[in-house]
Amino acid sequence: MSVTSVDKDFDSLTLTLIADFAAPVERVWELWADPRRLERWWGPPTYPATVEDHDLTAGGEVTYVMTGPEGDRHRGWWRVTSVAPPTSLEFTDGFADPDGTPSTTMPTTTVSVRLTAHGEGTRMEIRSAFDTREQMDQLVTMGMEEGLKLAVGQMDDLLTG
Amino acid sequence: MVSHQGDSGSLDRLFHALADTTRRDILRRCVHGDLSVSQLAAAYPMSFAAVQKHVTVLERAGLVSKRRHGREQLVLTEPEAVARARQALDDLDTLWRGRVARMSGLLAQEPQHPRTNPGTHEHRPKEGPER
To answer: Where does the source fall among the domains of life (chain B) (predicted)?
Structure first.
């Protein structure tokens, strides 16, 4: 009931969805930022997700496994491109092979999330765009390892800082 | 995105083919299937070879087919392949509507959230949400 509008742009292969929640921005943000909450809504009920890594920093990664009704397991990942708690998050969302290697055949999507105070609740705008093959290849060759290194670098900074 | 898995390689080609303004324009022009590659080429400020290459990308993605008509090759948009790309967006729509519904459900289940810090956002009313 809380979806306010949905726009599908066929030319840019982008879905824009606006939803209103009767809860403050911080609580909606927690649904993304807390892995235990995230796994309760990310996967459909028939494919519940278990979140493994959850690093919501630029260059950070979220990895998850969805388990299907037949016990089939599907690995997925986010690569976070930008984050500004508690109002915005942008990431690439893709699938991975069983060993965690990003899939080269599955399309990826770029997801951007904006949360704004709206009356006493929160308006969430989601833009989800299918990426092209070129972007995908680029991501696989230069992206994942760089992203991991960056995340580790940031962790070092935190520990020494 | 679980529903895409059966068909992923071709879906990927489909998106690649669609991710170009000229190619999308070619699809629009070829719905009636009465234009040849050379007639198409005349419509764009690029070489015949460049237009031909775009048509080849579309053809590999199954978005157009070519048929011989005398000495010409006529290009026809394949509505089914275009519909599959639409289907992918529809699937994404369904996926996100489901997620939003589950998010709403979770928010309704836990009205008091212990980790919220109201002090950081003074503009927000201190009392809880209505409804």
So the answer is: Bacteria
What ipTM, to 2 d.p.? 0.79
Question: How deeply is A60 buried, as exposed, middle or buried, from its count of CB atoms within 10 A (0-12, 13-18, 19+)?
Answer: buried
Of A145-149, B20-24, B70-74, where does mean pLDDT reach its minimum? A145-149
Would you kindly state where each structural domain of chain B is located, as residue ranges?
31-91
Q: Name A16's bridge partners.
A: A7, A127
Looking at every residue in chain B, the average pLDDT score rounds to 78
Mark which residues 72-131 of A lie under 8 Å from B by CB: 74, 76, 93, 95, 103, 105-107, 109, 117, 120-121, 124, 126, 128, 130-131
B100 and A19 in contact by Cβ < 8 A?
Answer: yes
Inter-chain residue contact A10 with B123, CB threshold 8 Å:
no
| Share of residues in chain B with pLDDT > 70 (%) | 76
Q: Which residue blocks in A14-120 are alpha helix, DSSP H?
A: 25-33, 35-38
Task: Determine whether the interchain pair B97/A117 forms a contact, defined as Cβ–Cβ distance below 8 Å.
Answer: no
Flag whether pLDDT at B130 surpasses 90: no
Find the mean pLDDT for residues B109-124: 53
Residue A150 CA: distances (Å) to CA of A25, A59, A64, A80, B79: 28, 6, 20, 11, 44
Domain, as residue range, for A117: 3-160
What's the CATH code of the domain at A75?
3.30.530.20
Number of structural domains chain A divides into: 1
Which of the two residues, B13 and B130, has the higher pLDDT score?
B13
Joined together, the tokens standing for residue A46 give 């028939």
Query: Cβ of A42 and B99 within 8 Å?
Result: yes
Residues of A within 8 A of B9 (CB-CB) are 105
**B31-91 has which fold?**
Arc Repressor Mutant, subunit A (1.10.10)
Which chain A residues are closer than 8 Å to B97 by Cβ? 3, 6, 17
Residue B54 · residue B37 · CB < 8 Å: no
A42 touches B at CB < 8 Å: yes
